[in-house]
Amino acid sequence: MIQLNVNPKESLIDEKVHISVTGLSPKEKVTLSASLAEMNMHFHSWGHYTSDQSGGVEVQKMECGGGSYTGIEPMGLFWSMVQKPGQREGLRLQKKDVTTPYDIKVAVHLGHVPQESLDSGGALAEITIQRSYMSEGVTRVPVREGRLRGTLFTPRGVGPFPCVLDLYGSGGGLIEHRAALLASRGFVTLALAYFRYDDLTKDLDFELEYFEEAINWLSNHVSRTGVGILGISVGAELALMLSQRFPLVKAVVSISACHCRTSVRDIGIFISFRGERLPSIELDLSKIQIKDGICCIRECVSDSSDINGQINVTRLNPQILFLHGSDDGFFSARAAAKNFELQLKQAGKDNYETVLYQDAGHLLEPPYAPFCQTSFHKVFESQVYWGGQARSHVRAEEDAWKRIIHFFKKHLKIVDPVSKI
Asked: Per residue in 163-199, pLDDT tens?
């Protein structure tokens, strides 16, 4: 009897699972597949295997010979998911309702099945598993305090817990999945929207005072000893600017930040503080590279620093973890890493760590979600190239997530909370 085993059947998105098949004939060719549907988006993956002499397949140990991934990849069925044909191009899978898991159907098919035949039926065995961002016991509370719009996630238990402000980038909206996962790993986390959500501005024109309100709110209600900030892309640049102005920010993880404030003609990305707009460098859109309808803006920012637009990271002394991918499709990661490090060295600072991941791209997310090299960008109104080579990018995400958890646990003090929300 053919049996398909996936253990555990319920897990967090950053946890590995063990997939195996038993009861096959020796040296039998089979295809393992995984599929999910989320918000009318459909993704799937597939891998070709050949059973061993005992009629078994162990994904953790065996070579995948073809499909959406190759090689020995225990989590390949998850990170290599691609959108199914027949949908609009440029989909990016992001969990909208973090209170519910992904329901993922894993199946085994006879023979080395091509992509176009995966949905034709006839699976030898199949099982549905659940992958979540929000663990049991984590609480989710919408935040509408003054101008603030976001969601607060609190870990299970009585605490106290370290506290993190979570900022995403130029796509806007309220993105909760990373904050929910951080709470599942023991951090009170505020996922903060700052434009294109609810009654917030639809323009990329931001006041640092808005984020100051969020930091003060967290300090008054959650942690009087200060907060950490986790930011990616524009969110990382904001995190760095905030860390140099507000002493309550004790630790920052900066993912894929540019070394300078950038603006885009007819689009914006302007930042002001105390009524003054901060200097920025306008992207040179004539240097956009377009291939097959996909835009790469990496060359639009000069590698050399304009001191007026440069993000200064030397004023205060928060602990900073810089994470970059060498194949970032949005900015020159090497230039950014070099600039930040040069600033800090010249200032005699040692409060930072820099990691440049070879062949990783811009979107360093929690591990094992589908790798996204290109997707539609709402602001640019086109498909954009985020960069990264799949296997290298996934390895980077595995390492980066471990570093983020360790970094915040090390540098955020835990004392009795100010109040329980």
From this structure: 999 999 988 999 999 999 999 999 999 999 999 999 9
How many Å separate Cα 392 from the centre of its chain? Answer: 15
Q: ∠ CA(4), CA(44), CA(179), 5° rounding?
A: 100
Mind listing the pLDDT tens digit for each residue in 238-248?
999 999 999 99
The catalytically annotated residue of 177, 256, 328, 377 is 328
Euclidean distance between the first and final Cα of the chain, in Å? 52
Strand order in the sheet with 82-83: 10-12, 125-132, 102-110, 29-38, 41-50, 82-83
Separation between Cα atoms, residue 112 and residue 30, nearest integer Å:
5
43-183-105 Cα angle (round to 5): 25
DSSP state of 29: E
Q: What angle do CA 164, 167, 171 make, to 5 degrees?
A: 160
> Helices in 225-279 by DSSP H: which ranges?
234-243
- Joined together, the tokens standing for residue 344 give 């800090």
Active-site choice (45, 51, 233, 254) = 233
Task: Please report the pLDDT score of residue 149 as a whole number.
Answer: 98
Annotated active-site residue 411? The verdict is no
Q: Which residue spans within 169-260 are E strands per DSSP?
A: 188-193, 204-207, 227-232, 249-255
C-alpha 401/C-alpha 230 separation (Å) is 11
Catalytic annotation on 18? no
Q: 139-145 and 148-154 as β-strands: parallel, antiparallel, unpaired?
A: antiparallel
Chain centroid offset of residue 161 CA? 22
Chain centre distance of CA 141: 21
362, 377, 393, 411: which one is catalytic?
A: 362
Amino acid making up residue 19: I
Residues in the chain, how many? 421
Nearest-angstrom CA–CA distance, 72 and 74: 6
Place of tokens 């996934």: 394
Q: Which candidate, 406, 15, 364, places its Cα nearest to that of 228?
A: 406
Tell me the C-alpha distance between 108 and 266, whole Å: 51
Q: Which residue is associated with the tokens 């995948």? A: 64
306 is catalytic: no
Max Cα separation, the chain? 73
The segments of the chain whose pLDDT lies below 50 read 417-420
